[in-house]
Amino acid sequence: MYESVRDLVHVAEKREKALSELIIEEECHDSGISRKKVWQRMRINLLTMQNAIKQGETGDGVRSRTGLTGGEAIKLKNYRERGKTLSGDAMMAAVENAVATNEVNAAMGVVCATPTAGSSGTLPGILFMLEKRLKLTEEQMIRFLFTAGGFGLIIANHAGIAGATGGCQEEVGTASAIAAAAAVEAAGGTPEQSSHALAIALSNLLGLVCDPIAGLVEVPCVKRNAIGAGNSLIAADMALAGCTSAIPADECIVALDRVGRSMSAELRETGIGGLAGTPTGQAIKARIFGKNL
Amino acid sequence: MRNNYKSVFDIIGPIMIGPSSSHTAGAVQIGRVANKLFETIPPKVTVHYYGSFAQTHRGHGTDYAIAAGIMGFPADDSRVPLAPTIARKRGMDLRFVEEVGESPIHHPNTAILKMTDGTKKITVAGCSIGGGAIEIRAISLNGVDILPAGPLPIVIFRDYSKKMANALAINADLEEKAPFTRRQVLRAGNCDIYVYDIQNKMQPDTIDYFENKYPNIICL
């Protein structure tokens, strides 16, 4: 297992190997499972993500049991078809995929957590947009997932990936950062650029609180994944352009951990503070669960 | 660096039924640990929630997730959302209690499961650390309190014959096939309990090997 982003980038440069290759080797080494099996397992994760997107983007889309979320991936799809998006079709395709995935999650469909279920739309959002834009092969898409997973392991072991311990910055923030790092590799960037993309994406979502209304994974979670996808693309593009993060990726991860620890419990997935604590948030909670909660 | 997460599949995965990896998929895993420890479906279970689990278990589907795990369902089983109904149909007395105050195992996503069939009593305290990964920080088994390091895998061996030879054999076997970072030996009234914190994930065939070879071994 790699100790730090610096360590991972250093080994990739020294051995002139792709980040994804190092992470696949490491996974086989640590688990004792054959490369073929590890690859196949990741392929199943990829297919699960693809199915979730398809489910959310087909027909009228999906609706959650509470009615709080659903159907907006379809709105985005129709909007894109009119060809007049402000931020461009690639960006909105990623957003549509992200929203579709999290709507399926909220509707209790099957998703692949990346790194969590609440943040399961961000990474596939970008990946399946890049599939078309960069004409990625299935092999490249699976490599994208390994690269993202490798960076995610470093974040998870140095900070965390739970809203209850570190806020949404650890969920959508992490998803956005690891997807940015993997997107750079998919686009032909260097390992160093991947680390800058990770640092930029993580920095931009630092401090994001976890404030789910009624304790559900619906509002604001679904739309946060749209923003996570957008942030990820911006960070990846900036890194590919040669922009750098003044703060090294590993220090950003330490900051993520410290910020998470200093958040009050109200803002860590308790459904008390932030948007959950607004009059409307409280009214929705009362409507769904009754007033005695 | 903490070593709670051991595989890229902890980050990309699990494949699961929504809505929350920590409050649903992780809760299923805590239930599955309880199922393994009780070695059958326990007739009576009281679940005590702390922190975020206490505040949001209804919205997150934590109740059905724990119930599913207790019955041994995997996290992507389509029966997961129906689990409490299935459990009650099977005659299980299942209760959920929202506790106030600090979690006894110091994590905001804590569930403590107290299981009994009238004579046997087993308690397990688990926390869901994010992305579907869990830690088991306390177990009460055969009247003895066990405090593992937390991260899985954990192997528990109960030696009712109390022969050192058994322990030496299992030690050597584990060192070869599933190296451990710590071993604890506890004395219960009717058996010796060995608790091993295992370094890396155990593959299904390794778990089968140990479960077939040693009676009264539990691989969590």
Automatic annotation (TrEMBL), chain A:
Keywords: 4Fe-4S, Gluconeogenesis, Iron, Iron-sulfur, Lyase, Metal-binding. Its EC number is 4.3.1.17. It catalyses: L-serine = pyruvate + NH4(+). It comes from the Bacteria. Pathway: Carbohydrate biosynthesis; gluconeogenesis. Its cofactor is [4Fe-4S] cluster. Residues 16-276 form the Serine dehydratase-like alpha subunit domain. PANTHER family: L-SERINE DEHYDRATASE, L-SERINE DEHYDRATASE 1. Belongs to the iron-sulfur dependent L-serine dehydratase family. This is L-serine dehydratase. It comes from Limosilactobacillus caviae. The gene is sdhA.
From TrEMBL, chain B:
Keywords: 4Fe-4S, Gluconeogenesis, Iron, Iron-sulfur, Lyase, Metal-binding. The keyword Coiled coil does not apply. It comes from the Bacteria. The keyword Iron applies. Its cofactor is [4Fe-4S] cluster. It catalyses: L-serine = pyruvate + NH4(+). Residues 7-86 form the Serine dehydratase beta chain domain. Pathway: Carbohydrate biosynthesis; gluconeogenesis. Belongs to the iron-sulfur dependent L-serine dehydratase family. This is L-serine deaminase. It comes from Limosilactobacillus caviae. The gene is sdhB.
